[in-house]
Amino acid sequence: MSKIEKKPLVAAIVGPTATGKTDAAVSLCLALGGEAISMDSMQIYQRLTIGTAKPTPEEMRGVPHHLLSFVPPDTPYTVQEYQRDARAKMTDVLARGNLPVFVGGTGLYLQAVSRPLNFAQAGETSTVRECLQHEAETSGGPEALHCRLASVDPETAARLHVNDIRRVIRALEVYETTGTPMSAGRTEWDADSAEDWAIFALSWPREVLYTRINQRVDIMLQRGLLNEVESLLRSGLSPETQAMRAIGYQEFVAYFQGHCTLEDAVGRVKMNSRRYAKRQMTWFRRDARVQWISLDQYNEPEAVHQAIIGRVRTLQEERQ
RNA sequence: GCCUUGGUAGCUCAGUCGGUAGAGCAGUAGACUGAAAAUCUACGUGUCGGUGGUUCAAUUCCGCCCCAAGGCA
Fold first, then answer.
1. Quick check: A69 CB within 7 A of strand B?
2. What values do phi and psi take at A82, rounded to 5?
3. pLDDT of A17-64, one tens digit each?
4. DSSP collapsed to 3 states, A188-257
5. What is the predicted ipTM?
6. Which of residues 75-134 of A touch strand B (CB under 7 A)?
């Protein structure tokens, strides 16, 4: 009997959009006594239902789901909040003796919850941000901002491209509201976590994936995505909010504002979804912990689910 | 049937006063540590519709053919 310290086992189902993550996660939960924790930056929002492909009660099949629809659509939400909320949910699920099953496609959220990344407390950033944004557009442009960052936080400035204004501004905000540079206390990406993570990424060949994405957008429209967007706008929600920048929303906002035809908007939702899926692939390919599941090697979803369940069960047995 | 205008990258098109060609979009790859469905970076060879001719050399000029759009009958 070796006295290996036992870390709790945590599972995650990731991968690009439209691969059947939800279904796989629910099956895993049902088989092994798990609870699902969403890892999706847009499904957190209330009233963004159809366009975010939020799981329906039927799809949940009685399995508890956490971190869905708990933020009002006009409220910003950040990675460090997700880290805090998700780790709290994970702890709860473990305390109940259940298996936490994270499910979603937001790569940064996976890092935040599964790596010991340090986020120090920051103050109110909105006014600072407005100032900096204004500055980027007028006076010195992106170069001036980048220069300024280099003088207070050379390490972060060195790894950010001058044109990546968003990140440059974020780094400056952190410095100005906390007084310490973002690079202070920075953790390595591959730092060990306090849990053992079994991460599965679902993937289709590119051509199949793109066909599925296009079809899914058509289905969302049939389910009433246009009405959903229109009703959000009618209730006074600003198109500038984080929630309305989601794919499937920003494009139809442009349509309702008369900037493009419906056909153009639908085409751009499909295009942006394809690009997003590609970025998701890039993100998960980089993570050495990820076990890839090639869906074209299985005849039916049930076989995929059984394969994942089998692997997790083996891990559970190994640690007993 | 005749006339006109087109046919060049996956798409929309530019261009070569004759020396085998380049933009935008799409696409591909990558980055990502306090907004992430966000944000940013890099990457451009294709029988220049087909076929004959002129020429040292034709995608470019000329002939014929095919296809598309418009006009006339």
1. no
2. -65, -45
3. 889 999 999 999 999 999 999 999 999 999 999 999 999 999 999 999
4. CCCCCCCCEEEEEEEECCHHHHHHHHHHHHHHHHHCCHHHHHHHHHHCCCCCCCCHHHCCCCHHHHHHHC
5. 0.91
6. 76-80, 105-109, 111, 117-122, 125, 129, 133
